[in-house]
From TrEMBL:
Signal sequence region: none
Entries under InterPro entries matching the protein: AB_hydrolase_fold, Peptidase_S9_cat, Peptidase_S9B_N, Serine_Prot_S9B/DPPIV
Lineage top rank: taxon: Bacteria
PANTHER family, alphabetized: DIPEPTIDYL PEPTIDASE 9, PROTEASE FAMILY S9B,C DIPEPTIDYL-PEPTIDASE IV-RELATED
GO MF: dipeptidyl-peptidase activity; serine-type peptidase activity
Pfam families in the cross-refs: DPPIV_N, Peptidase_S9
PROSITE patterns: PROKAR_LIPOPROTEIN
Official protein name in the record: Dipeptidyl-peptidase-4
Domain Peptidase S9 prolyl oligopeptidase catalytic: 569-767
Enzyme category, top tier: hydrolase
EC numbers for this chain: 3.4.14.5
Any GO BP annotation: proteolysis
Domain Dipeptidylpeptidase IV N-terminal: 128-477
Amino acid sequence: MKKIIHWFAYTSIAITLTACQSTSVNNTTHSNKTTAVPQLTVEKIYQDKEFKADSIGRIRWLTDGSGYTTIENSATKIKDDTGKTKSIGKDIVIYNPETLERKVLISAEQLTPKGEDKPLAIDDYIWSDDKKKLLIYTNSKRVWRSNSRGDYWVLTLQSNQLAQLGSNLAKPSTLMFAKFSSDAEKVAYVFENNIYVETLANNKIKQLTHDAGNGIINGLFDWVYEEEFTIKDGFRWSPDDSKIAYWQLDTNGSKDFIMINNTDELYPTITKFPYPKVGETNALAKIGIVDLTTSKTVWAQLPNNSRDMYIPRMNWSGNSKEILVQHLNRKQDTDHLYLTNADTGTVRKIYTEKDEFFLDGIIDAKWIENGQSFIWTSETSGWRHFYKISRDGKTKLDLTPGNFDTVSIEAVDEKNGWLYFIASPENVAQRYLYRSKLDASVVNQKLTPDEFAGSNSYQISDDGQWAIHSHSTFEQPTQIRLIKVDGHQTKHLMMDNKALVEKLALLNKATTEFFQVTAQDGLVLDGYITRPADFDPSKKYPIIFYVYGEAWGQTVQDRWRGNAYLWDQMLANQGYILASIDNRGTRAPKGREWRKQVYGAVGVLSSRDQSDALKAMAKRWDYIDTDRVGIWGHSGGGSMTLNMMFRYPEQYHVGISLAPVPDQKLYDTIYQERYSGLLPEYEEGYKQGSPITHAKNLQGKLLLIHGTGDDNVHYQGAERLINELIKHNRQFDFMSYPNRSHGIYEGAGTTLHLKTMMTEYFNEHLMNKSH
């Protein structure tokens, strides 16, 4: 309880707010136009999609950097039933990055199975290492968040033969995670929770695991692993193709969550799946290594393995003799790394990563130097850095030294000795490409030119010579360029979103300013504020905050937000000010302490930060009408919306909460226990951090929205909150969307209906609120 008392002590500190100077300002002005200025509407944005952005097909670099492949419409045309001409399907084309020469590598005709008149729809594709075979993923079906179950076909380029995998085994859309062996002679996949391997020369199928059923699953994950460790594919080929290492999960003991579908059939149907909530029993994870010749599995002999331990990552360690297994305790503050013998299963611990509070953002070790070293992520310096660690774990070299956070690894060019990564030491709202030498002789060399201020991401070729560069800002849609990495030379503008940019130019756009305020304990908080195009500082304006506020997101970013930006523009044109604040604990690259301060009482300090920010903003900008303050958010942002409406009812008057977690004990073990701690030690933190505890304080207008088919944040929480509000006679508005999942987007008209309802709710209760 010591840490909880420490956090709660902050609430007794007197509020002394000071406002810092703005960090960046958009001073765009608009000249008077003689033509009528188009007006944004919910229908134009979400129904007619008048402002839809461009996109390009999925790109794959060739391993030697000599070209990249992508998906484009076929040049072969047919007429549809209405007489309109359309492409018959998709081609896979290859581009030479040096000359931009284009060549159709795989035509839609080649992807048409015998006896069929339509080519396969390409959901994804993977090249074999020798580029002589192509694995096509098609007819995919949704499993939780992504379409991870479908059909797989292999095209052999030399013979032009197209063959379906598992054709004598599987029903349609039942294979998962198919992958070539390195020699492209075999493909392994998961079918009905067991792992199979198919020899391509004769389509002979061999079953490698046989124990699926009664809660046992092989080569894939349960809901909570997939969601919270962001991992779906549960097996790995050895480099020499002789073995496959895989996860096995025993979900027995994990209680099932049940969802009811009342609308699709005459009688209700039920979906149930293992979902361990806070304090409940997890699945037991194990690592097996199966020999393809004998089909025998050797199990990794991890010490003290139990249902209170996790295995968030595993990979081959630069050779076919050992795998590296990460063994994480339930509290998620200690991650042991074990090299595991692939023949015997014996293990030896080489490294341990520890944190006082929790470890976050766990990723695979990236092996280099023929397995003699690996790239690792650590916050031991107080900042999120990338390190090179020797195979025995004894030597640790910081490749990104300095008082700043790295964000992600973009590529490792081992041949030329470079680590490419994303960071933004000077402005946490932006993202830039940097690189460091793998021996740290050169560190933190910025590659993104200043002209690309904003957010940047890169898909870099394996040889480190070329990249697909995506760039956007808060007000500029994404542009994609082919660049030569050396000197960041633009070779080709692949996508400019010209039509969208031209449409945006016709709008009377509101301007956005990035700024900072200081909370009562001196912590600097980042935010943005959008003012109406016809802004008059002598007037009073209602303000709407968009909030997330939890560990898996950052709202204050200088990047294109698509329809969310346009909706804000529409509201600004109606006379609102729009704003967002990142409180402590969010995924802003501001150092370990920033992220870890909320541990043990998620929702307490973070909601106080939001309150502090509003007070500081109102003190700086007196045109903010503090009697008309709205707030909305989704998921963690829905929870934060509830916390602000319940904990600070004198400041926040209208709230729209989408898919919130009203009671933190209702969420899953991995996420919630990571940030809120384990029960019973942190019982009080769970209570005080949960919005439902403070529901009796509601004074303003609240619209609660939830999908009944939400497998992530369960509808159960909405019903518990409803009961609590009823108990205290607190009036509110509620909308349930039948069978919609966490994103609340499925079904005809859903998004338009949702955004229309939200717009009208703010207009009725905030814009027209009587003082």
